[in-house]
Every structure is written in structure tokens, then in C-alpha cells.
Design goal:
The chain has helices spanning about 1-15, 85-100, 125-140, 145-160, 165-175, 215-235, 245-250, 260-285, 285-305, 310-320, 345-360, and strands spanning about 20-25, 40, 40-55, 60-65, 70-75, 105-115, 180-185, 190-195, 200-210, 325-330, 335-345, 365-370, 380. The protein is α+β, with helices and mostly antiparallel strands. The protein folds into two domains: about 1-195, Ribosomal Protein S5, domain 2 (2-Layer Sandwich); about 200-370, 2-Layer Sandwich (Alpha-Beta Plaits). It has a six-stranded mixed beta sheet with strand order 5-4-6-3-1-13, sandwiched between helices. Strands 10-11-9-12 form a four-stranded antiparallel beta sheet. It has a three-stranded antiparallel beta sheet with strand order 2-7-8, sandwiched between helices. A hairpin with a 5-residue loop joins strand 10 and strand 11 (about 335-345). The structure holds alpha-D-galactopyranose. Alpha-D-galactopyranose binds next to helix 5.
């Protein structure tokens, strides 16, 4: 990827320039709790985005996406918002940096990525983090990595329309080889956990399903849990985020919120606790417990939070039947991957059977990705 980008850059703009990279992410547990003040457990992975970037002394951005084989130019004023979806991420990052006082000028760039599209591995966070990191470096903006992760998140909110939490951009910015990150999404305090489960493998099975409505459903879920938090706050003003609420407090407002919002909120409170339980289990190397909690997350996401789909349920249920240690859908939902914690000896039979039975049921095989926990944003 690096060489191809270099060649294209020379062809398109002449000469050479610095390259920057960032990564997609996985998440062991802690789904949809990042915007509720909970903890999450993500890590960056060995696929991501690489961009070659050079300031051009104008106020125009000239960006070439190798993936879309498309060159676009746009200015940096709010009204210059480009139409192409991919360009909005770059534009959004620039705008969010400018809004925070940075002096960003025009630049030329060629970039590409290898995060499988629509797999729920956060190709968008990889794109935002790569450019946020690169522009911060090239224009000497002086933002911290915390600022840069928040800039990526604000890009999603204000230029893409997804009211996401901070998990993806944080993992993509702060990821470290061989470590998962236990992240407190409220304070952004975090701790790296070396993750080498002896005798197990972490593997993703990609359903290759992507539902168009995922982002509007995502925003609706967020609105549901905020409605529940709001109702609880009236009685318990100390509840800033839903994660602050006790289960009994949610029960108290059961009749004041919709049955749907109640169910969504119940899932969230369960998940907030499960992340902490996984941390405890990991300190005892109790992978059986980690896996059990992963299944609970899956069935919570499927039956209470309702962001799964038949393909994801099929894979999680098959894993359960084959006594795989842990499995669950990962990320926003409505498609993408399951993450599986598989005993070494079960890996080959599980993957083989999952491919076969999934193909019989849905007409195509799932894709298989071995998880390699890697570094996040960096200059190459
Ligand atoms: C998406 C969002 C994240 C997070 C996950 C679900 O990936 O971008 O902020 O909410 O869904 O855990």
C-alpha cells in the first residue's frame, strides 16, 4: 500500500511527502456504552489507512482516494463541504481543527485503506485519525492525542451525522501493539492490558452484511438511553450519564419511559457491569468467564438492545453450540463481524463449520480475519 501511494503521489502532485497511518479497531467488550459514560475494551488492529500528505501553500485541499480512484478538490470554509462521502471525513477533520483555533492550510494528499468496508472495524475512525494526526504534525497545531480523538468524533457528529461515542477514534489514535485498552469513556483515563491469552485465538467472522439504516438506528439507540438517563436524573440528579444509575433507579422510572427505552437502558446497565467483570476475570486469567460475558453481551445486544441481525445471531449461536469459549457481535451492529475467543484446538473445526453452515444458510461464506492487535496513529 505504501509504495502504491508513493507512486500515485509522485504522478499526481510530483515529488514526495511524509506518510501517516492509523488503524481500525476491535472491541473485546463494552458495546454501546461509550456514549453512556461506561468503560470499553478496544484495541487497534493491523489494517487501517495510510495517507501521504504535503501542505501546498494554497487554501485548497486536493485529495486522491485510491480506493475510489477519485481526485477531489475543496476549500476549507464551511460552505465548501464536498458531496462525496469519503471527502467529508477529511473536510470534517480540517473544519473541526480550524474551529479549535488551528491554522490549517491547503494540502495535497493520496491515501488508501485496507480495513474491510462495512465490517464494523471502524474504517472511518482510521481515516479521521490518520488525517487528524498528519495535519496536527504538518501544520504544527499542538493538539494532544486526546484532542485529536475528540476531533475525529466531532467529525462524525457534525459532518457525517453519526452521534458516535469516543471508542473508535480513541482506539485508532492510542492503539498499541499487543495491548487492549481499558478506556473510561467519561474521563478518557485508560490503561493498556497486554493481551496474549494462552491457548486461545481471537478471530473475527465477517458476515459481509451491511445495513443501510445502521447510522439512523444508532442515533435512535442513543436517544433512547439518553431519555432513560434524563428520567432517572429527575430523581437522582447525580446521574450525569446512564452508567451512573443503579438498576433499581431504572426500575423506579419504568412507567415514565417507553418500554423500548427501558429495555435499551437495561441492556446498557448490564453491559457497564460486564466490562468490569471481564477486567476482574482477566486478572485471574479466567477466560471461561470472559467468554461467558461475551455471550451475555451478544444476547443482550440481540434481544434487548436489538442491533443484531440473523447472520450475526447465527454465528454467535453456532459458536455457543460448538462450545467456543466466547463469541458476540461487535461494534455498532446490523451486520459486520462477530468477535470470537476460540480455544486453539477448536479454531480450525469452528472456522470450517462456520463457513460451511453460514454459506448454506445465507448463500455466501463469512470472511475470516485473525486479530492482530497493533499500533494506532503514527508517522511512518
Ligand atoms: C460504533 C461507534 C462507537 C460505539 C460502537 C458500539 O462503532 O462509533 O462509538 O458506540 O459503535 O459500541
Amino acid at each position: 500500500m505504501k509504495n502504491l501511494i508513493q507512486e500515485r503521489f509522485a504522478e499526481q502532485f510530483g515529488g514526495t511527502a511524509a506518510q501517516y497511518a492509523s488503524a481500525g479497531r476491535v472491541n473485546l467488550i463494552g458495546e454501546h456504552v461509550d456514549f453512556c459514560g461506561g468503560f470499553v475494551f478496544p484495541g487497534a488492529i493491523d489494517c487501517g489507512v495510510i495517507a501521504q500528505v504535503r501542505p501546498n501553500g494554497t487554501d485548497q485541499v486536493n485529495a486522491y482516494s485510491l480506493h475510489y480512484d477519485q481526485l477531489l478538490s475543496f476549500g476549507l470554509e464551511e460552505e465548501d463541504l464536498p458531496h462525496a462521502h469519503w471527502a467529508r471525513y477529511l473536510f470534517g477533520v480540517c473544519r473541526e481543527m480550524i474551529k479549535r483555533g488551528a491554522r490549517i492550510g491547503g494540502f495535497d494528499t493520496v491515501f488508501d485503506g485496507n480495513v474491510p468496508a462495512g465490517a464494523g472495524l471502524s474504517s472511518s475512525a482510521a481515516l479521521e485519525s490518520t488525517f487528524a494526526f498528519a495535519l496536527n504534525d504538518l501544520f504544527g497545531c499542538g493538539f494532544t492525542k486526546f484532542d485529536l480523538a475528540l476531533i475525529g468524533q466531532a467529525t462524525e457528529h457534525n459532518y457525517v451525522g453519526v452521534k458516535c461515542g469516543i471508542m473508535d477514534q480513541f482506539a485508532s489514535m492510542f492503539g498499541r501493539k499487543d495491548s487492549l485498552i481499558l478506556l473510561n469513556c467519561r474521563t478518557l483515563e485508560h490503561k493498556y492490558y497486554p493481551f496474549h491469552p494462552q491457548g486461545y485465538r481471537l478471530v473475527l467472522l465477517d458476515t459481509c452484511v451491511k445495513h443501510e439504516l445502521a447510522s439512523s438506528a444508532y442515533n435512535r439507540r442513543r436517544a433512547s438511553v439518553e431519555a432513560a438517563a434524563e428520567a432517572i436524573r429527575k430523581r437522582h440528579p447525580e446521574v450525569e450519564f446512564l452508567a451512573d444509575a443503579k438498576r433499581v433507579w431504572l426500575e423506579e422510572v419504568k412507567d415514565e419511559i417507553s418500554a423500548e427505552d427501558f429495555l435499551r437502558a437495561q441492556y446498557i446497565l448490564g453491559e457497564v457491569q460486564r466490562v468490569l467483570d471481564v477486567c476482574n476475570a482477566l486478572t485471574r486469567d479466567d477466560y471461561g468467564m470472559v467468554g461467558e460475558l461475551m455471550y451475555q453481551t451478544h444476547f443482550g445486544l440481540s434481544r434487548m438492545y436489538e442491533v443484531s441481525c440473523p447472520e450475526l445471531d447465527f454465528l454467535a449461536t453456532l459458536a455457543r453450540r460448538m462450545e467456543v469459549t466466547g463469541a458476540r457481535m461487535m461494534g455498532g451492529g446490523y451486520g459486520g463481524c462477530t468477535i470470537n475467543l476460540v480455544q486453539e484446538e477448536l479454531y480450525a473445526p469452528f472456522v470450517e463449520r462456520a463457513k460451511k453452515e453460514f454459506a448454506t444458510a445465507f448463500g455466501h461464506e463469512p470472511k475470516v480475519y485473525d486479530v492482530v492487535i497493533s499500533d494506532g496513529a503514527r508517522k511512518l
